[in-house]
Each structure stands twice: as structure tokens, then as C-alpha cells.
Design a protein that fits this description.
By secondary structure, the protein is α+β, with helices and mostly antiparallel strands. The chain has a single domain (54-228), classed as Sortase (Sortase, Chain: A), CATH 2.40.260. It contains four helices and eight strands. An eight-stranded mixed barrel has the order 1-2-3-4-7-8-6-5. A hairpin with a 6-residue loop joins strand 7 and strand 8. The longest helix has 62 residues, at 3-64.
Length: 240
Amino acid sequence: MSRSLRGRAAGVVGVVGEVLVTLGALVLLFVVWQVWWTDVESDRAHAATVTSLEREFAQASRDVGGAGDPGDADSTVRIEGDVFAVVRIPRFGADYARPLVEGTSAKELARGLGHYVGTAAPGQVGNVAIAGHRTTYGKPLADIDRLRAGDEVVVETAAGESTYAVTSHEIVRPWESDVIAPVPGDPGATPTKSMLTLTSCHPRFSAKQRWIVHAELVRTRTRAQLSLVDDLPAPRVETS
């Protein structure tokens, strides 16, 4: 090979190398944005939404006196994108609180947890089905596998609070949608219980399967009852 050809080949290799390095850097930046920065942005947005919802709930309590059953008040028809509840899961930390959005598209799940359209409302008979990311966009269900039998999932709306206790876990394929049926696993059955189902991807950083957690309603409290709890004096601590 002549000197000129070798020079041209070296130049081409150099250009290709620079392009590959640039592409690699861009891919790395995208991964950082997708895995880390979306969490930072979403955590801030989720916290702001929860604060706004809590203010709305407090105002609704003053306006209507806090009467009524949480399940009854949630018969209101919602459209996709409506933010209507706060979900608290003590197992994930005392300060864990995420907004619940109507719908489970990518747009809704970036804003918090998503309520499957057509499933029961909080406190109602049937199955309240909720989806959430396990990675990225605040990863609200990152630790779904840590939930244990008896752990509480609390859903607070303007009407009050519905508390569910975890009963079981299962791992299914993405198309096995009977897990969010009114009676999970039996789509044709008529529900007699109030249930809640959490769904998230499994394993982490993959969408090959779904991690499912089922829970049953154990307690409801109206807004008035919650106000009474808030108004109780703090317990007295005796000192020796």
C-alpha cells in the first residue's frame, strides 16, 4: 500500500473512531438522563403535586364538613390525566407519598402512580389497580418486592382514606391482565371484596414480566374522622 493510501486509511479510521466515541458519549449521557435525572425531576414534581393535593383535600373537608364514605365519593367520572389521590406505603418510608393519576400511559406514569382506567375507585368493592415504574421517573415502586404480608397501602382522596393490607405476590407475563380484574385471576366473577393491586416491571431494567402485589381493604376513614385524629393532643411523654 502506498504512503498516500495508508494516510487516507488512517484518516478514515480516525474519523470513524471520533464518531464512535461521540456516539458512546451521547449514549452514556442518555442513560444518565434516563436512569438518574428523570428521578430527580420526577421526585420534585411528585412532591409538589402531593402538597397541592393535600391542600385541596383540606379545603374540600372545610367545604363539605368531611362527611361521606370514601368509596361513595369516588364514583365521580374521571378522565385520563386527572390527579385525584395520594398513595402512602409505610414500608417504603414514613415520608413516602406519591400522586395517583388516572391512566397508565407513559405520560401518566411519568407524573406518579397510574390508576388503570375502568378498575375500582379507592374504597369501592372490586379491584383498585395501580401501576408504577420500578426504575426511572421517580421509580415509585422500586421496592415493590420488599412488601410483606400485612404491610399497608393507604390511598387518600378528598373524601377520606382507604387502607389496604398486602396479602400476596405473584410474577406474571405482560399480557396476563386478569391480575387486575375485579376478582384477580377470575375475570368473570362478581366481586364481593374491596381489593387493591400494584403492578410494576420485573426484573429491574426490564419489561419481560410483571411483579404483582395484591391487598385487601382493612379500614376506611372519612375526612371528618381524619380531622378528629389530627386534632387529638399529642401523647404525653412521662419523664423519670
